[in-house]
Structure formats: structure tokens, C-alpha cells
Fold this protein.
Amino acid sequence: MKSAKPYNIAKRTVWEAYRQVKANRGAAGIDEETIAEFEQNLSKNLYKLWNRMSSGSYFPPPVKQVEIPKASGGTRKLGVPTVADRVAQTVVKLVIEPGLDAIFHPDSYGYRPGRSAKQAVAITRERCWRYDWVVEFDIKAAFDQIDHGLLMKAVRTNIREDWILLYIERWLVAPFETADGTRAPRTRGTPQGGVVSPILMNLFMHYTFDRWIQRTSPKLSVCPLRG
């Protein structure tokens, strides 16, 4: 039987997304709703989310902005989506991750399933015996400064589902809300702390760094570790 909804999103995917959000735990967003509170009316909450995403009427709420201290000094701004929005983002992540992960460079280790920082360190240690020098660098405020236009160009190159494009665009512009209730619009970046942000960062860096390095310095051995 054909669904009356404009977008075909499996309820099973929404359920699996919720299970992953629960396993990852995490703090409440701007609505102050915890995972335990979300579960008090779980069936209704998941159905409402599925219904809105399937109909194209889901709009993400603002992202709670929190500051955490950095080991090197200063603070790092993180974005904490609501529990429901983390479930919605995980739905999209579950759909797009297998296809996108398959195109990433084999030496890319950050934010990828089955890969870790320890593996990146191990392969770097191994290669130190084969090379005379190493270059280490950090991209300052990488998550905060991603160009939305360039990112969406990369997204559209690899993703065809209209509903996924729709919601990624909405997540990119969802405003931050600070502790005092002030809302700040966003024209660049993707919140570090969002579920889809790491894979979007990897996709952006796949084109702007990994592919560029392969084209301009094909003999260079690279172990990108996003963090």
C-alpha cells in the first residue's frame, strides 16, 4: 500500500535512531526535556516526529549553546539539540552514512564508524619509520566556519533524497540559543555537538582537503583526524 506521505521514511528507522540517541545519552536541549522525560510518552513522541518528517513539516528547534573549557585554554562552543531533534538527525545519519562513508579516504579516521583516534595514532607511528618529516596542523573553528553554500553543493552531489536535503538545510540555519535566552541566527557552520555535523564536516573536508591533497600531492601520506 502506497504511503500518503510525500516522503517515505520507515518507522523502523525512527525507532533505531531513538535507540542510538538513548545509548549515547547526552544533555537536554532548550526545552530542558531529558531522555527519561522523552520516554514517558515515547510512542506518541516518536510517531509525532515520524509524521512531521514524512510530511515535510518538521522544523528543528533552536540549538542550545554551551561553552566548555578547552585543555589549551579558553572555551569551545558546543550546540546541544533537543532529544527529539537528535532522533531526527540520527534518522538522516542512518540513511546517508553508508553511502558517504564509502567515498571517504581510507586514511581518514575522525568521526567514522569502526575507526578511532587510537587507530590514527597507530598508523601515524608506523609511518614515522618510513618518512623523514611530518606536518601537523589544526583548522581553527572548523565546525563554526563551514560555508553553507559549498557544503550544500557537496551534499547535493552525493545525496538525492529531497527530504534529506530539506532537513539538512534547515539544521544548518537553526539558530543558537544562549543561556540567557538570546537567539543568534547562523549563516555559517554546523554545530559541534549535532548528530549530523560530524558526517557533514567529513564530507566538506573530503572535497576541500582530502581530494585536493590527492590531486596536488599524490605521493603524500595523510591521516586526517577531525576533532
Summary: The chain has a mean pLDDT of 90. DSSP finds nine helices and four strands in the chain. The longest helix spans residues 197-216. The radius of gyration is 19 Å.
